[in-house]
């Protein structure tokens, strides 16, 4: 079997590429978007078409959805397989989502429920996973110096989203700012349910759209996406920034918190900001050496498990994460990991596990063992290929 892997430098790509190769699949790689981010849809389609003409491809694969690839594969009658690992993904609103040669896999059940009715035979649900073997190769060879350098009581690895927040750059009325502030304060009190999309007024939606000359616009959409995008790309990103800063400030005033981020952390003077870490070589050492790892899922991921959850557990790290509706489908809270639904509960659980070392280590091991048994990339891609095998021909 030969496939084309269209890459744009997602952190998931090396693991998936390796698993496809280990499965005995001949993988051809198109890398133009890894080196040049302004590749046009026409250029993308042209490159993919050239590969399809030259090689007997079983399918074309990408992380996240590229409408130009979908249209090209539809025209040339080659299946297009993609696995969405982000939310939101505006490109999913393209009319290309309806194409019969699509085989689209979405990691968030809320995202799946939203988009699957558009093309129910071609859109599937598939949660994320971890490359346990990659993480084992690193954590099993950690030295005492590694544990000293990367260890600590509480660790958070990730963006603070301040540099990614389009909302802060908008010129909005005091009324809209006040409305959004109130909406975010209400949402911050609720975990497991995102009510921002339906709570926006039409006036607020339109003002946000009008305030950004670069608002994502396309004539190639199957439905109006403005409300979805204002909720997720603007208010949702702002909420992520507020929630992460507020949570980390709260914790750093009570515990020793190691913060690994490339974002501006000047608003968190009591956190030990250590800058960014290399995803493949340093991040697993942080997860394994830290007594408690914190995950704060951005609200546009409504029900699903972010990649951070899988990676912490794959490194045999102890994890406390905000509650997500899909967690009980894969892990047992209190046995494989811990969750929280308020800052007060988070503080209580951190205090408890910092003083109950054996229980904390047992939970970390349980989470790692369960992930290794059921949730590796090998298992996920085997599930994907099984679905493709049963449903390859339009």
Q: What's the number of structural domains?
A: 2
Can you tell me the CATH class of the largest domain? Alpha Beta
Q: CA-to-CA gap between the ends?
A: 19 Å
What is the helix fraction of residues, given as a range? Answer: 40-55%
Explain this structure to me?
The chain has 394 residues and is α/β, with parallel strands linked by helices. It has 2 domains: 2-129 and 377-390, Response regulator (Rossmann fold), CATH 3.40.50.2300; 132-374, Rossmann fold, CATH 3.40.50.2000. Helix content is 45%, strand content 13%. The chain contains 17 helices and 12 strands. The strands form 2 sheets. It has a 6-stranded parallel sheet, with helices on both faces. It has a 6-stranded parallel sheet with strand order 9-8-7-10-11-12, sandwiched between helices. Helix 1 links the parallel strand 1 (2-6) and strand 2. It is globular.
What's the short story on this structure?
This protein is α/β, with parallel strands linked by helices. Helices cover 45% and strands 13% of the residues.
Give keywords.
alpha/beta; Rossmann fold; 17 helices; 2 domains; globular; six-stranded parallel β-sheet
Topology summary:
Blueprint: E1 2-6, H1 13-22, E2 26-30, H2 32-35, H3 41-54, E3 59-63, H4 67-76, E4 80-84, E5 102-106, H5 109-115, E6 123-125, H6 132-139, H7 144-150, E7 152-157, H8 174-188, H9 196-199, H10 202-211, H11 226-252, E8 257-260, E9 272-273, H12 283-289, E10 290-295, H13 307-314, E11 319-322, H14 327-330, E12 338-340, H15 343-354, H16 357-374, H17 377-390
Parallel strand pairs: 1-2, 1-3, 3-4, 4-5, 5-6, 7-8, 7-10, 8-9, 10-11, 11-12
Helix pairs in contact: 3-4, 7-12, 10-11
């Amino acid at each position: 079997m030969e496939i084309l892997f269209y890459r744009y430098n997602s952190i998931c790509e090396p693991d998936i590429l390796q698993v496809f190769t280990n499965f005995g699949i001949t993988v051809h790689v198109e890398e133009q978007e890894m080196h040049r981010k302004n590749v046009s849809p026409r250029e993308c389609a042209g490159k993919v078409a050239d590969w399809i003409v030259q090689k007997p491809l079983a399918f074309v694969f990408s992380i996240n959805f590229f409408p130009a690839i979908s249209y090209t594969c539809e025209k040339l009658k080659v299946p297009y397989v993609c696995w969405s690992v982000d939310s939101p993904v505006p490109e999913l609103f393209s009319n290309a989502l309806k194409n019969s040669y699509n085989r689209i896999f979405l990691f968030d059940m809320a995202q799946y429920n939203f988009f699957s009715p558009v093309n129910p035979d071609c859109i599937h649900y598939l949660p994320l996973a971890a490359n346990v073997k990659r993480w084992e190769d690193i954590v099993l060879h950690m030295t005492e110096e590694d544990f000293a350098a990367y260890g600590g009581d509480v660790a958070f690895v990730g963006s603070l989203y301040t540099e990614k927040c389009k909302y802060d750059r908008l010129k909005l009325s005091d009324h809209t700012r006040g409305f959004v502030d109130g909406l975010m304060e209400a949402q911050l009190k609720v975990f497991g349910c995102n009510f921002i999309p339906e709570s926006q007024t039409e006036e607020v939606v339109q003002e946000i759209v009008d305030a950004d000359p670069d608002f994502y616009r396309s004539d190639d959409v199957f439905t109006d996406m403005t409300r979805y995008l204002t909720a997720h790309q603007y208010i949702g990103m702002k909420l992520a920034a507020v929630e992460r800063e507020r949570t980390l400030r709260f914790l750093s005033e009570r515990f020793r918190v190691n913060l690994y981020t490339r974002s501006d952390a000047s608003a968190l003077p009591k956190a030990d900001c250590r800058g960014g870490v290399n995803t493949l070589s340093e991040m697993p050492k942080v997860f394994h050496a830290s007594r408690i790892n914190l995950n704060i899922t951005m609200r546009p991921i409504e029900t699903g498990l972010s990649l951070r959850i899988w990676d912490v557990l794959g490194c045999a790290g102890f994890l406390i994460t905000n509650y997500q509706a899909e967690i009980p489908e894969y892990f047992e809270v209190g046995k494989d990991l811990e969750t929280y639904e308020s800052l007060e509960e988070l503080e209580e659980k951190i205090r408890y596990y910092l003083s109950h070392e054996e229980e904390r280590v047992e939970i970390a091991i349980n989470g790692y063992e369960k992930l290794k048994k059921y949730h590796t990339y090998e298992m996920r891609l085997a599930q994907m290929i099984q679905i493709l095998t049963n449903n390859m021909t339009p």
